[in-house]
Design brief:
Elements: H1 8-11, H2 25-39, H3 46-53, H4 67-83, H5 92-108, H6 111-117, H7 125-141, H8 145-171, H9 174-186, H10 197-209, H11 215-235
Helix pairs in contact: 2-3, 2-4, 4-5, 4-6, 4-7, 5-7, 5-8, 5-11, 6-8, 7-8, 8-11, 9-10
Length: 236
């Protein structure tokens, strides 16, 4: 794709596509998200998009500079879905936990796209609103600005890292994912205390715990550490 985006007033398509859809940036993003779920990164070609939209592939150029521009829009769509319906309670720890879990859930719903999007910085409306919201929660809680920025950074990176890792596991073929999980039962649970005493002592716990995401507990640890730092700031 090339740098040929048409200004908004000039790019609206009046006639529906062959499938009866009037093209818009949102329609293209939702179609791209669906195709990525089916075909992974290979879905982001104008030919595939055109076929799925029932439109000439060149129509995509009217909305996006190139496929990377479209990928950023997809990434921003996931961020927007994580924020949809969010209502802040005023309890900063509860609010940050809610935001973190929403991010994780939104990305797990689209694991193929999550792997492509979790590390991107979009600069678009949904991401901008998310940055404003999280910093607002931290500053309202009383964190000094340098501390608020550091905790924001750690909070977001943790959420997106777990989102990408857990999405990669979900995107595996079912037999491969089952085989990976079975390693804890078939390999680690059979190690003896004479050679691996710590694994042997915790084998049953490992088998049960490694079957789920470590993100909720990691998030709680981060928030607990942040609360400790905030308390130290107040007493200082």
């Amino acid at each position: 794709m090339t740098e040929r985006v048409v200004p908004e007033p000039q790019r609206r398509r009046r006639r529906p596509t062959k499938q009866g859809t009037v093209l818009s940036e949102q329609v293209i993003v939702e179609t791209a998200l669906r195709l990525i779920g089916q075909h992974g990164a290979a879905a982001l070609t104008v030919r595939r998009l055109g076929a799925a939209l029932g439109a000439d592939p060149s129509a995509v150029y009217r909305y996006f500079h190139n496929t990377d521009d479209l990928m950023l829009a997809v990434a921003d769509e996931l961020i927007g879905r994580a924020q949809h319906g969010l209502r802040l309670s005023g309890d900063w720890r509860a609010d940050l936990r809610e935001i973190g879990m929403r991010i994780h859930t939104a990305y797990q719903a689209h694991p193929q796209a999550a792997q492509l999007a979790a590390h991107r910085t979009t600069g678009r409306d949904n991401e901008t609103q998310a940055v404003e919201t999280i910093l607002g929660v931290l500053r309202s809680a009383g964190f000094p600005d340098p501390e608020a920025v550091r905790i924001y950074h750690a909070f977001v990176d943790q959420a997106l890292a777990f989102a990408a890792q857990d999405a990669a596991a979900l995107a595996l073929p079912a037999p491969a994912r089952a085989a990976d999980l079975a390693v804890w039962r078939l390999r680690y649970a059979r190690l003896g205390p004479d050679t691996h005493p710590h694994i042997a002592a915790t084998a049953d716990l490992l088998v049960s715990d490694m079957d789920r995401s470590g993100y909720p507990f990691a998030l709680d640890l981060l928030l607990e550490a942040a609360a400790t730092r905030l308390a130290a700031h107040h007493t200082g």
